[in-house]
Amino acid sequence: MTFKDLGIIEPILRALQAEGYTHPTPIQEQSIPILLRGKDLLGCAQTGTGKTASFAIPILQQLYLDRERNNGPRRIRALVVAPTRELAIQIADSFTAYGKHTGIRNTVIFGGVKQGAQTTALRQGVDVLVATPGRLLDLMQQGYISLRDVEFSVLDEADRMLDMGFIHDIKKIIAKLPHDRQSLFFSATMSPEIVSLSRKLLGDPEQVTVQPEQTTAERVDQGVYFVSKKMKPNLLLHLLNTENVTSALVFARTKHGSDKVVKILDKAGIESAAIHGNKSQGARQRALGNFKDGVIQVLVATDIAARGIDVDSLSHVINYELPNIPETYVHRIGRTGRAKASGIALSFCDSEERAYLRDIQKLIGQQIPVIEGHPFPDDGTQDPPASTDKSQDQRGGRRPSANGGGGGGSSRGGNRNRPSSRNRR
Question: What strand order describes the sheet that includes 78-81?
Fold first, then answer.
């Protein structure tokens, strides 16, 4: 199956070929025909499955084919709402890339920056608007944005919207949308709250559920170091200097913790930057751009700031601090091992984080291999390494290699539980 087989028009095919895309992912193969028929869509898919292209391509195609009917001033005809600035920017970049031969114009708006450049772009006219909820409502209230002409509405990562407290904003936005529209709703999970929200947004939707070909836990070679809190900086520097770490996304639980890690790395002469909520949008974009371009080797992030980060060939995710919510661990290590790629995820666990590790292992249905023999073991002030599998502690595990080898306690071995006329509304 190719994009041409899906009926994608030549201007978009040319853009996709320039991006190196010829064959659709499963969610694209299933979603694009549904959307080209004008149906509403309820999609359940993890990040890394290609869902942005699954809605951007058919929206661009329908706008392009309908351009003659809309040859007056540009009006916002497609609205995409995303939970974070980083994700919104990446979605807008995708619309730009796939639509570069169509003449369809998009812009992105988000908070944390002055609104002048955004309102100027809006006044010039756009066909596709990508937005975060807060700034969208703000500019609507100021009269810069009208949603009365929206024909396509997309709510992306709806579960993260709820986690971040955007439910009331989303309901206000939905209330301003025309009844006659095609609606798309994407979420990684389908909790009762998500199902309820989808019913408010969608009419009689088609449903697409796509799981990655392998679970994140299987695609990523995982390992955990039992290390005291005070020795974590030494272990991080040791790994960055001795392992084949081409690019590493390092996670800390707090903004302060992220800045502290960057200071440690800077002192050691390792190029790094932090992104979190206290950083200006310009600083966050510069840091992410430098990381993608290879200017810096290490990006240190909090969980919220990391949403939407999509870096090709990210070699390592390092959990400098384990998350206190086990699902967050899966989201974190999913930054590497995206699509069909493999990756390495290494975690530092001190005595206070043992309960977090147990919860994570219970969620993913497997033991994370313990890496022993490293130069910064527990200094005797901690309890012995705690695991839900004592044999794992006794056996230890081989360090995941950059070539994907695991062996012994590797996450790749053994059995595990797999953690046209439109019908619009």
Answer: 106-109, 128-131, 78-81, 152-155, 182-187, 41-45, 206-210
